[in-house]
Structures are given as structure tokens and as C-alpha cells.
Amino acid sequence: MGIxxxxxxxxxxxxxxxxxxxxxxxxxxxxxxxxxVEEEADPETSREMELGHPLELLGLYRGLPLxxxxxHYAGAxxxxxxxxxxxILLYSRDxxxxxxxxxxxxxxxxxxxxxxxDDDDLHRIEYGEPPExxxx
Length: 136
What we know:
Blueprint: H1 8-20, H2 24-27, E1 33-38, H3 43-48, E2 59-62, E3 79-84, H4 85-95, H5 99-114, H6 119-126
Parallel strand pairs: 1-3
Antiparallel strand pairs: 2-3
Helix pairs in contact: 1-5, 4-5
């Protein structure tokens, strides 16, 4: 990892750029979501997600997906998207991809959960296919 990769300010710039470049369908739908950067998944999250190591998790969405919300949801605390800096840097290095691309892909994936997509739907979206049940 280069020196810039170890700099939290530099990483935060990558996150800000990814937010600015969100696809319109995501940008227009996202409300009341905090995007947080952490070094890595904490021990409680690691146990909950059954991780062998905290660096296995690039990001995490915590909240109630939009399709599951009812009128009771008004005034709720913001949902949260966690981006795990060390895991993203390691994954980027090990897979030969730009950190900015990994940040963007992880952010879109986690916001996809906020929008109500499951991992299968997100996999289809990542390969340019419509999510299951989407109109043709």
C-alpha cells in the first residue's frame, strides 16, 4: 500500500468522490443514511457476521430497508453504511483494483441493501442484469 492509501484524509476523499458519483437511481432514493468510515469491523460485528477475520468485511448496511418501512418509521435515527478502510485497502491491493473503484462498488452494494436488494439481486446488478422481479 502506498503512503496515500494509509492516509485517512485521502481515503475520506475517495468516499466523498464515490458519493458524488452515485448512480441517479441511488442518489435520488437515499435519505437519512449516515455513511461512516471505520478502520475495520469491530469484534461484535465480526461475531455477528461470523467472520474469520475483521478484514473480510468491506462494508455493512445497518438499518431498515426502504421496502420494509411503514408509517412507524417517521423520525427514526439515520440508517448507517459502514465502509471498512483497512479491508478495502487490502482487497484493492490483493485484487489489483483501484481503491476508488473498490470504495464505489462497496458503497453501491451497501446502499443496494438500503434500497431492499438482497445479495443475489446485487450480484445481478453488478453484472448489468436487472434484479429479480424488476420490470423488463
